[in-house]
């Protein structure tokens, strides 16, 4: 349960900010589907990615280590 004085952080807004700030980039697969992947700048703050197999096929899972998470929280609302 989220405390009353806290709000959830919308993933889409965080992703949009990371793309516009150069930490993630949008790429296109050979089948035309799009996905986000970390740039060199993103990797430098602790954003990584790994290909995984899911029910709807293979996808790129973007992962954020504690450094990346702290960076996002400290800089997102500046």
Question: How would you describe this structure in keywords?
Answer:
78 residues; 3 helices; globular; two-stranded antiparallel sheet
Q: Care to describe what's here?
A:
The chain is built from 3 helices and 4 strands. With 78 residues, the chain is an alpha+beta fold. The strands form 2 sheets. Strands 1-2 form a two-stranded antiparallel sheet. The chain has a two-stranded antiparallel ribbon with strand order 3-4. The longest helix has 10 residues, at 11-20. The two termini are 27 Å apart.
Q: How are the SSEs ordered, and which strands pair?
A:
Blueprint: H1 11-20, E1 24-28, E2 34-38, H2 40-45, E3 47-54, E4 57-64, H3 66-75
Antiparallel strand pairs: 1-2, 3-4
The coarse silhouette is globular
Which spans of ≥5 residues are poorly predicted at pLDDT below 50?
Answer: none
What's the total number of strands? 4
Biggest sheet features: 2 strands, antiparallel
Going across the biggest sheet, name each strand in turn.
1-2
Give the % helix: 25-40%
Between the first and last Cα atoms, what is the distance in angstroms? Answer: 27 Å
């Amino acid at each position: 349960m989220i405390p009353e004085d806290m709000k959830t952080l919308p993933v889409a807004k965080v992703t949009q900010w990371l793309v516009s700030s150069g930490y993630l980039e949008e790429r296109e697969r050979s089948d035309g589907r799009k996905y986000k992947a970390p740039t060199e700048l993103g990797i430098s703050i602790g954003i990584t990615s790994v290909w995984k197999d899911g029910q709807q096929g293979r996808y790129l899972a973007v992962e954020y280590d504690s450094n990346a998470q702290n960076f996002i929280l400290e800089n997102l609302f500046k």
